[in-house]
Amino acid sequence: MKTAKEQLELLKRGVADIVSEKELLVKLEKSVKEKKPLRIKLGIDPTAPDVHLGFTVPLRKLKQFQELGHRVVIIIGSYTAMVGDPSGKNATRPQLSYEGVMSNAKNYQEKIFKILNKDKTEVVYNGEWFSKFSFNDVIRLASKITVASLLEHDYFDNRYKSGTPIALHEFIYPLMQGWDSVEVKADVELGGTDQRFNVIVGRDLQRESGQEPQVGLFLPILMGPDGKNKMSKSLNNYISIDESPKEMFGKLMSIPDALMLDYFKLLTEVPLPEISDIEEKLKNQSIHPKEVKKRLGRELVTMYHSKKDAEAADIEFERVFSGKELPADLPELILPQQLFKNGKVWIINILMEAKAVNNKSEAKRLVEQGGVYLNNLKIDSPATDLEVKNGDIVKAGKRKYFRLKL
Question: In the chain, what are the domains?
Answer without folding.
Answer: 4-219 (3.40.50.620), 245-322 (1.10.240.10), 332-405 (3.10.290.10)
